[in-house]
Design a protein that fits this description.
The chain is an alpha/beta fold and about 300 residues long. The protein has eleven helices and eleven strands. The strands form three sheets. Strands 3-4-5-8-9-10-11 form a seven-stranded parallel beta sheet, with helices on one face. Bound molecules: NADP nicotinamide-adenine-dinucleotide phosphate (NAP). NADP nicotinamide-adenine-dinucleotide phosphate (NAP) binds next to α1 and α10.
């Protein structure tokens, strides 16, 4: 009596389990939309195919979509708007801190507080929403990507004040950080962060202490380049011998091993692997059902030392 009953029909299975992201329950397996707008070395994805992929993602239980206004100068956001409208079923995480100029060619830093605000407004417009659930501040102090110089070197506290104001005004639900150092993460903790998005994978483990700090503070860790990216010349998770061997033993793909390791490595890990292929998306969502043995985890943990 008085106890809420859950009938089997109400039990929702979310790929990879669930995480409360800025108050929204999301599947730990999400989706990164950059490949829909920018595929290094390959032609752009057809818009209808991109929308079909986004619909398939939701059908598979993906409820967390990572994007940015600067992915194709609004292209990724507009595809997301066309696919989902403004439904709350999908939690959108966008980012600010850079802009496209000479559209859609050149990416430049846009780190000043007024530029962060303008970028939130541009995101709201292209996404067709009155509020963005989460916005990450993408810092440009270190590789990969553009490095801020001159008046684009902006004090983090000034940026956090602007993001807090945007949150108070209700234009964004919450904010996080991207491409930050441990010191910057510590500095920002009192502002209340929803997530951190740094480059991190089996071949890029430099964020380990930040991941621990996020876990201790119930902050999601949603790494970019979880497979090592689509950019040529960067180390790739799927090329690691230990990953290939684990995939062989388990009868899954090397990409799935790399993503399964991430999921198993931290309870606050959210996946936003990027793909332009529905078949790859389906494989990536299926990672939630892969269990890596302790022995395989140890072998994979050693990859970073290679
Ligand atoms: N905050 C930041 O600075 C920042 C920077 C970069 C990216 N991001 C975000 O992070 C997301 C993920 O990063 P990312 O897309 O650059 O790199 P990624 O997820 O590490 O790798 C994407 C590459 O992996 C391939 N791939 C994905 N699933 C696969 C599978 N099952 N089998 C084989 N290949 C597979 C994709 O090719 P196919 O298209 O052929 O599947 C693509 O070439 C982005 O989409 C974006 O939302 C954020």
């Amino acid at each position: 009596m008085g106890t809420a009953m859950t009938t089997p029909a109400e039990v929702v299975t979310r790929p990879g389990g669930e995480w409360l992201l800025a108050g929204h329950p999301v599947a730990r397996i999400g989706y990164g939309a950059m490949q829909l707008a920018e595929r290094p070395g390959r032609p752009p994805v057809d818009a209808d195919d991109a929308i079909a992929l986004l619909h398939r993602a939701l059908e598979l239980g993906v409820t967390h979509i990572d994007t940015a206004e600067f992915y194709g100068h609004g292209t990724a956001n507009e595809l997301i708007r066309r696919a989902f409208g403004d439904t709350d079923e999908v939690v959108i995480v966008s980012k600010v801190g850079a802009d496209r100029v000479d559209a859609p060619v050149r990416l430049v830093a846009a780190q000043k507080p007024n530029e962060l605000r303008a970028s939130v407004e541009a995101n709201l417009k292209s996404l067709g929403r009155e509020r963005i659930a989460v916005v990450n501040l993408r810092r440009a102090d270190a590789q990969p990507g553009i490095i801020a110089s001159g008046d684009q070197i902006v004090n983090l506290d000034d940026q956090l004040a602007e993001l807090s104001a945007l949150r108070d005004e209700g234009l964004i639900g919450a904010f996080g950080l991207s491409n930050v150092s441990l010191e910057q993460l510590q500095q920002a903790l009192p502002s209340g962060l929803a997530c951190v998005q740094n480059s991190y994978s089996l071949v890029e483990r430099s964020g380990e202490r930040m991941l621990d700090l996020c876990r201790a503070n119930d902050i999601a860790w949603a790494p970019f380049f979880p497979l090592g990216s689509a950019f040529p010349g960067r180390p790739k998770v799927v090329e690691q011998p230990a990953v290939i061997e684990a995939a062989r033993q388990l009868g899954v793909t090397p990409s799935q091993v790399g993503l399964a390791w991430l999921l198993q490595h931290g309870p606050n890990m959210l996946l936003i692997a990027g793909t332009s292929s529905i078949a790859h998306l389906e494989q990536n969502v299926a990672v939630g059902d892969i269990k890596l043995s302790d022995e395989i985890m140890v072998a994979l943990d050693a990859v970073s030392a290679n």
